[in-house]
Amino acid sequence: MPTKSEEDWKEIAKQFYLRTNFPNCIGAIDGKHIRIQKPNHSGSLFYNYKNYFSIVLLAVVDADYCFTAIDVGSYGSNSDSNILKNSALGAKLIDGKLNIPQAQTLPNDENGKPMPFVIVGDEAFATSRNIVRPYPRKNLSMKQRVYNYRMCRARRMVECTFGILANKWRIFHRPLNVQTNLADDIIKSSCVLNNFVRRKDGIRVEDECYECPLVCIQQVGVRGTSSGIEARDYLADYFISPQGSLPWQYDHV
Question: Phi, psi (5° rounding) for residue 128?
Answer without folding.
Answer: -145, -175
